[in-house]
Design a protein that fits this description.
With 228 residues, the protein is an alpha+beta fold. The chain folds into 2 domains: 2-133, no CATH class; 143-226, Transcriptional regulatory protein pf0864 domain like (Alpha-Beta Plaits, 2-Layer Sandwich). The protein has helices at residues 2-6, 15-39, 47-67, 71-81, 94-110, 114-133, 161-167, 199-209, and strands at 143-151, 168-179, 184-193, 215-218, 223-226. Strands 2-3-1-4-5 form a 5-stranded antiparallel sheet. α2 runs antiparallel to α3 and α2 (15-39) packs antiparallel against α5. The longest helix has 25 residues, at 15-39. The N and C termini lie far apart (73 Å).
Length: 228
């Protein structure tokens, strides 16, 4: 009986088989969801993404069972999925791993290999939890995005070089945009701070250079805005 539950035949569907597969899918999806919540508990997380991780294995497993060995259904399903587009971007690239893991678990359960699904889900959960505990994915350098509004009269290419050399390890100008009907420019930089710098001093020095206009500094570690 136990062997039959952990290695199901989905060639001929029955109500019992479908229910067992969906039960395993939701349980294994729950393991991934709890792992995601654990690894993102400090910075916070989107609860709707947790619902996605929980439901995705169920949906995928049901689709795999319905397609089964029917090639025509498989091609029709592929055509339907080409119409689907993601409407939101993921804030953390690690979240893609959870998405693919959910799909993989759904595929495994839909094919009837529920025992292997348990092994895969537990292995991924333990690995992601371990990487989080040892801070393997932690940023070792402080990076940020800097937006500076400057007056039209200021020659911006080298206007802040002296300040950047004092506080930054590296910087790159990514975008220049006119604002306020061309009376000001908005400069966007990707920057990397030197260790143990004074961020308030950095912003104060920039305000001297840009005539105390708006400055926005944002990253995973800092979110400061100064306005005139």
């Amino acid at each position: 009986m136990i062997l039959n539950i952990f290695l199901l035949s989905t060639d001929e569907l029955s109500l019992g088989t479908v229910l067992i597969v969906m039960l395993f899918a939701v349980l294994l999806g729950g393991i991934l969801t709890m792992t995601y919540a654990f690894t993102h508990r400090l910075e916070g997380f989107d609860r709707s993404f947790c619902v996605t991780l929980l439901m995705l294995p169920i949906v995928v497993s049901v689709i795999i069972m319905l397609v089964s060995n029917n090639i025509a259904r498989a091609f029709s399903l592929a055509g339907v999925f080409t119409l689907i587009r993601f409407r939101s971007t993921l804030s953390d690239t690690k979240d893609i791993t959870f998405i693919f893991a959910s799909v993989a678990i759904g595929l495994i359960c839909g094919m009837g290999y529920t025992g292997y699904g348990i092994v895969v889900a537990l292995f991924i959960a333990l690995l992601m939890g371990l990487l989080h505990i040892i801070h393997f994915d932690a940023e070792t350098e402080s990076r940020a995005r800097l937006k500076i509004v400057i007056p039209e009269s200021l020659n911006y290419p080298h206007a802040f070089d002296s300040v950047f050399m004092k506080y930054l390890k590296s910087y790159k100008l990514n975008r220049v945009k006119t604002t306020d009907f061309g009376t000001t420019f908005e400069l966007t930089y990707d920057i990397q701070f030197k260790p143990d710098i004074n961020q308030k001093g950095f912003l104060d020095d920039l305000r001297v250079k840009n005539s105390n206009l708006n400055i926005a500094l944002t990253s995973a570690y800092v979110a400061q805005v100064t306005e005139s």
